[in-house]
Design a protein that fits this description.
Glyoxalase_6, VOC family protein, 2 domains, 26% strand, alpha/beta, elongated, Glyas_Bleomycin-R_OHBP_Dase, Signal recognition particle alu RNA binding heterodimer, srp9/1, 4-stranded mixed sheet
Amino acid sequence: MAKEFQVTYDCADPGAQAAFWAQALGYRIQPPPEGFADWAAALTAWGVPPERHNDRSAITDPDGKGPRVFFQKVPEGKTAKNRLHLDVRSAPGLTGDERMVALEAEATRLEGLGAKRLYRLDPDGMDEGIIVMTDPEGNEFCLD
């Protein structure tokens, strides 16, 4: 039986990372528990000091199909290449120039949200072409 899973990111600013990835993936910030107008109200009611309100954040797929993505604050910064990364499927079913045009458009949109482009690999017979980028905190991901 398949297990549910979530993807967890260590980061410096969970709120900002959640906002970026929600836009990148078409997800939404996880709503606060029932009975609370927002997360600040919930965290305050639970006795979490205001300076710790940005220690965690999460995003969810509004259709309930994709995994939850959780962001947790850690003291250390990113120091090396990710061993695991996301492939953001931005051009499924497209090939050749049509695929690369779609990937370029998505790369431009994500750059407007704070992502950075690292490099582009054009189609070469074995691969269909991708654009490698980083999120605002430097975590690598591919537009696929």
